[in-house]
Amino acid sequence: MIKPVFFKGIIHFNNIISDETHRIRIIPEGPFTFEPGQFVTITVAPMVKRSYSIASLPGLDYIDLIGDVRAGGPGSQFFSSAKEGQGVEVLGPLGLFTFKETARSVIFWATGTGVVPFISMVESVLVNNPDKPLILNSSFKFEKDIFGQDIFEDIVIRYQNFTYNLFVSRPEADWKGKSGRVTEYFKELKKPKDYDHYMCGVKPMVEEVLAKLIELGVDAGQIHYEKY
User: Fold this and answer.
1) CATH 3.40.1180.10 at 105-227, yes or no
2) Of 92, 142, 216, 222, which has the most beta carbons under 10 Å away?
């Protein structure tokens, strides 16, 4: 595992990517490496730190972080107000929620900002193993909350073995995509024991999917998750 380090960085941009979600790009002061799925802790106010999954690929000269600003706390305020050229203190990489390579296909399950580590993980897996079948099930409460759709739809074009399922649990009447929670995918799932499963998102979703997979006979060693 890569040893975490403390470093300083400069904010390159702060973009709004959905109704209440921002994407910040940080340029580290020196080389920085991590494993897809890991996170960093940043100083968002004096003596206040918050943790965010890395949304970019390893090996680049920047890291992207995505944050929800609706809660209104110190982390939300930082993502709302961060400016280009602003300095930021970072500690990382941190976390054990990384990809474990096996011969099995993979299903990723995510709600809301839980999809962030999979932005990095999905493409990294495919770069190293372009023929590996992957399925990503991502859900949001409202259409205005959706982000990452352009990224994953681009990956679908480049890799025929990658399937992207986007669910909206409270869609508008004119929504033409999949409706319901991410667990709707269980209606389509065949042979769940043939897959490794990665889950990230709110605690109730992770626990519900975990319980269902175990009920279906999936071995605990094939299930990996991070919840908040």
Assistant:
1) no
2) 92
Tokens of 170: 């409270």
> What number of residues does the chain have?
228
Does the domain spanning 5-94 belong to CATH 3.10.580.10?
no
Which residue, chain included where needed, has tokens 């908040």?
A: 228
Q: What is the pLDDT along the chain (228 residues), one digit of tens a residue?
A: 689 999 999 999 999 999 999 999 999 998 999 999 999 999 999 999 999 999 999 999 999 999 999 878 999 999 999 999 999 999 999 999 999 999 999 999 999 999 999 999 999 999 999 999 999 999 999 999 999 999 999 999 999 999 999 999 999 999 999 999 999 999 999 999 999 999 999 999 999 999 999 999 999 999 999 988
| Location of each CATH 2.40.30.10 domain in the chain | 5-94
Q: What is the pTM of this model?
A: 0.95
Q: In the numeric block, which tokens belong to residue 228?
A: 């908040």
Where do you find CATH 3.40.50.80 in the chain? 105-227
Q: How far apart are CA 85 and CA 212, in angstroms?
A: 46
